[in-house]
Amino acid sequence: MTAPFNPHQNPPDTTSFGTDLKTAEGVPPSRVGALLFRLRELWWRLSDTHRILLAIALVVALASGVFVLRSLDSATAAAGDPEVGAPVLEAESELLREGPGSETSTAPSSVVPSGAEPEDALMVHVVGAVSAPGLYRMATNARFDDAVRVAGGPLPEANIAAVNLARKLVDGEQLRVPAMGEPVAGPSENTGAAGNSGAAGALGGGDTAAGGAVPQKVSLNNATAVQLETLPRVGPALAARIIEWRSENGPFRSVADLGRVSGFGPKMMASLREKVSL
């Protein structure tokens, strides 16, 4: 049975400490062994209270060291990574709003970021059955589908099959998404090629004979101001009123709606009825 510990007793005999650590031949202890020997000797000289306090101090120091090391690792990792939550493309979150009928919430990469206005960017006017009609700046490689998504997506009543979503955009053109049941005028700009889509959508809606003998009608919903001015008695002021009206009220539902534009009376309507279409 082991005798109780007496803090005032002499420390254990350490004359053979080197022999215990190495071999029975009495090889002197190494530096590490000597250090351990000194620590052991000091430990035996301490009282129970001092030993407890020393053990607590060692535990606290060890825990503090672990905490500091982990904090340094976290700070180093954070410094090497991009800022958490930093937007990759601010304009995508600002311009793209998932509208009814939209099947995706991924922002199109063809949107030009706000504040960045490269000279080769496109400006298009999206109207018709979309959630947010308006002017949008797009990249040069943008498609009709990108413009529809940026405008909030098609409305439930949109006739999306009547437009060519794969068509490339042209700077300064107006893109119209028709509603279901709404007449689509001739070869719309939604199906035209990138180089002549604006003219193809603005002039059409009437029957054309072989060789173009029958003149095409001017589309009230797609024509530019220059094309509207080709109509009899329509100058820059009246052309601007037509464009302003359809921007504020949406596409014309019938040719008779032209009478709701200021400056178009009964006589004016009679002269234009056979020369315009939707």
TrEMBL record:
<dbReference type="GO" id="GO:0006281">
    <property type="term" value="P:DNA repair"/>
</dbReference>
<feature type="compositionally biased region" description="Polar residues">
    <location>
        <begin position="102"/>
        <end position="112"/>
    </location>
</feature>
<feature type="region of interest" description="Disordered">
    <location>
        <begin position="180"/>
        <end position="199"/>
    </location>
</feature>
<protein>
    <submittedName>
        <fullName>ComEA family DNA-binding protein</fullName>
    </submittedName>
</protein>
<dbReference type="GO" id="GO:0015627">
    <property type="term" value="C:type II protein secretion system complex"/>
</dbReference>
<dbReference type="GO" id="GO:0015628">
    <property type="term" value="P:protein secretion by the type II secretion system"/>
</dbReference>
<feature type="domain" description="Helix-hairpin-helix DNA-binding motif class 1">
    <location>
        <begin position="226"/>
        <end position="245"/>
    </location>
</feature>
<feature type="domain" description="Helix-hairpin-helix DNA-binding motif class 1">
    <location>
        <begin position="256"/>
        <end position="275"/>
    </location>
</feature>
<dbReference type="Pfam" id="PF10531">
    <property type="entry name" value="SLBB"/>
</dbReference>
<feature type="region of interest" description="Disordered">
    <location>
        <begin position="1"/>
        <end position="25"/>
    </location>
</feature>
<dbReference type="InterPro" id="IPR003583">
    <property type="entry name" value="Hlx-hairpin-Hlx_DNA-bd_motif"/>
</dbReference>
<feature type="compositionally biased region" description="Polar residues">
    <location>
        <begin position="7"/>
        <end position="18"/>
    </location>
</feature>
<keyword id="KW-0238">DNA-binding</keyword>
<dbReference type="InterPro" id="IPR010994">
    <property type="entry name" value="RuvA_2-like"/>
</dbReference>
<keyword id="KW-1133">Transmembrane helix</keyword>
<keyword id="KW-0812">Transmembrane</keyword>
<dbReference type="InterPro" id="IPR051675">
    <property type="entry name" value="Endo/Exo/Phosphatase_dom_1"/>
</dbReference>
<dbReference type="InterPro" id="IPR019554">
    <property type="entry name" value="Soluble_ligand-bd"/>
</dbReference>
<feature type="region of interest" description="Disordered">
    <location>
        <begin position="95"/>
        <end position="115"/>
    </location>
</feature>
<feature type="transmembrane region" description="Helical">
    <location>
        <begin position="52"/>
        <end position="69"/>
    </location>
</feature>
<dbReference type="Pfam" id="PF12836">
    <property type="entry name" value="HHH_3"/>
</dbReference>
<keyword id="KW-0472">Membrane</keyword>
<dbReference type="GO" id="GO:0003677">
    <property type="term" value="F:DNA binding"/>
</dbReference>
